[in-house]
Amino acid sequence: QVQLVESGGGLVQSGGSLRLSCAASGGAFSSYTMGWFRQAPGKEREFVGSINWSGVSTSYADSVKGRFTISRDNAKNTVYLEMTSLKPEDTAVYYCAARIHIIVLTTTTQYNYWGQGTQVTVSS
Fold first, then answer.
1. Cβ distance 119 to 18 under 8 Å?
2. 31-60, pLDDT tens digit by residue?
3. What are the angstrom distances between the C-alpha of 72 and each of 15, 50, 57, 123?
4. What is the DSSP string of 19-86?
5. Measuring CA to CA, which residue among 27, 21, 29 is closest to residue 70?
6. Of 7, 75, 85, 106, which residue is least crowded by CB atoms under 10 Å?
7. Rg (CA), the chain
8. 3-state SS class at 88
9. Mean of the pLDDT values across residues 27-34?
10. Which residues of 70-90 are buried (b: 16+ CB within 10 A; e: fewer)?
11. Contact 79, 95 (CB under 8 A)
12. How far, in Å, are 18, 24, 76, 113 from residue 27 at the CA level?
């Protein structure tokens, strides 16, 4: 069973940048497809981005395409979410998720491991 711990959240001004990290332990990290999701108050958890086991394949929500980049370092058991040109509507708790798979996964029900989340707040 894999454990996931997110870090790197915080308060940033509109137009700023943040890099989130998700450290995994307890599993064969390189076997996992990794995903980032976010949940704003009163809203459902939504897909942000996903990266396959090798890092070759990625997928992004339209709302973040061109601004966010997901990457992974299998030697460090860590997946990253680089966020640029942040907007107030990006404010949410950001979660990383994992599942043993070979392709990117884009829905919450496809993942079976979740972190506790990290808060990102973008001020206008």
1. no
2. 999 999 999 999 999 999 999 999 999 999
3. 24, 10, 11, 28
4. EEEEEEESS-GGGEEEEEEEE-TTS--EEEEEE-TTSS-EEE-TTTTTTEEEEEETTTTEEEEEE-S-
5. 21
6. 75
7. 13
8. helix
9. 94
10. bebebeebbbbbebeebeeeb
11. no
12. 27, 8, 12, 11
CA-wise closest residue to 12 among 84, 116, 93, 94: 84
* 73-107 pLDDT per residue, tens: 999 999 999 999 999 999 999 999 999 999 999 99
89: DSSP letter: G
Residues in the chain: 124
Here the tokens at position 108 are: 């919450």
Report which residue type is found at 55: G
Report d(CA 3, CA 85) in Å as an integer. 30
Q: Which residue has the tokens 């973040």?
A: 64
Task: Tell me whether residue 16 is exposed, middle or buried, using C-beta atoms within 10 angstroms of its C-beta: 0 to 12, 13 to 18, 19 or more.
Answer: middle
